Amino acid sequence: MKSQDIFILLKLVSLSQQEESGEISEAVNDSENMITVSDRYSARGLAAALGVSKTEVNASINRSIAVGMAKHERETGYPRANKSALLEFICHGLKYVFPVKPAEITRGIPTGFAAPGLKGELMSTGDYIYVWPDAKGKEKGQTVTPLFKSVPEAVKKDPRLYEYLALVDAVRLGNPRESKLAISRLEERLKSR
Q1: pLDDT tens-place string over residues 43-77
Q2: Mode of pairing for the β-strands spanning 79-81 and 105-111
Q3: How many domains is the chain partitioned into structurally?
Q4: Domain range holding 43?
């Protein structure tokens, strides 16, 4: 597994939930192009939405299928994340396989406990929040390296993906109490939507 595999799997969850809730319909007119649901699940669509190459999207989905974290849906052929396996990996393995260490102070997009999903839930002992570096970011905080370099751009287009990735960072960054809260929130969101 690579860190972008988690990024791509969370995007697949987000797409699936948007589809189920009716947030995305069969065809949407985006500028001059017609975008269908199948376009969103294609390697080209995922690459455009996430800032990951088409080759890497395909390789990532194949890796995820090989380890049981994804499968192709029988009716549509769309790749779908195995939410229970993904959650299990995030809960028990992510912080060991993809550890994070906060670094220098920079401007960026809030993540972890400073992001909207957990903001104000826990008292922080530090002066600074955690951010993904972004030149256009409105917050100042300690740099946290995202799971993939294009995360800051991708989350601007998909608030649900932003919420998931921020919760994942809370698991990666948190002590047991903080991680437990983030896991609980992630579990609620993955199962309820």
Answers
A1: 999 999 999 999 999 999 999 999 999 999 999 88
A2: unpaired
A3: 2
A4: 3-97
